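About this split. The held-out portion is used to measure sequence recovery: a designer receives only the structure tokens and must propose an amino acid at every position. Recovery is the fraction of positions where the proposal matches the reference. Here is one held-out target exactly as it appears in the evaluation file.
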């Protein structure tokens, strides 16, 4: 659902959208949308994203360590639930992520966040629109 929002925004605003993954990602025929497939392996896709990144770019990720790297390089990071990571909040997101990993490893909690629902997708679309409008203005 998030990819569909991204595809529509890229076409509507004529902005380049690049998807990076270690598996094939189907994309619609487009002059502004492309997909890059990288090798399998731990953080290979993340490393490729960071390498391709330019200041001011926007990365959509639920991976908080990747978001931290993105922000360090002067770009923007938005998660699929519509949360914008910033210099001011990314470290607290990292701390929460690490705490939850410790609790899961210790068997004190299980699972992760609930699956995305339509409300999450709408929050993401709204956050994306605000960011894109700000960057055009």
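Reference sequence for scoring:
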């Amino acid at each position: 659902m998030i990819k569909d929002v991204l595809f529509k925004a890229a076409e509507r605003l004529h902005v380049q959208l690049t998807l990076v993954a270690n598996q094939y990602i189907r994309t619609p025929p487009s002059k502004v949308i492309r997909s890059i497939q990288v090798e399998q392996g731990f953080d290979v896709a993340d490393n490729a994203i960071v390498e391709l990144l330019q200041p001011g770019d926007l990365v959509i990720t639920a991976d908080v360590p990747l978001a931290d790297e993105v922000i360090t390089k002067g770009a923007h990071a938005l998660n699929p639930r519509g949360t914008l990571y910033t210099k001011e909040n990314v470290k607290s997101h990292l701390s929460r992520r690490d705490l939850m990993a410790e609790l899961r490893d210790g068997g004190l909690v299980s699972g992760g966040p609930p699956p995305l629902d339509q409300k999450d997708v709408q929050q993401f679309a709204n956050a994306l629109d605000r960011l894109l409008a700000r960057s055009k203005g």
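Annotator remark: DSSP finds five helices and five strands in the chain.
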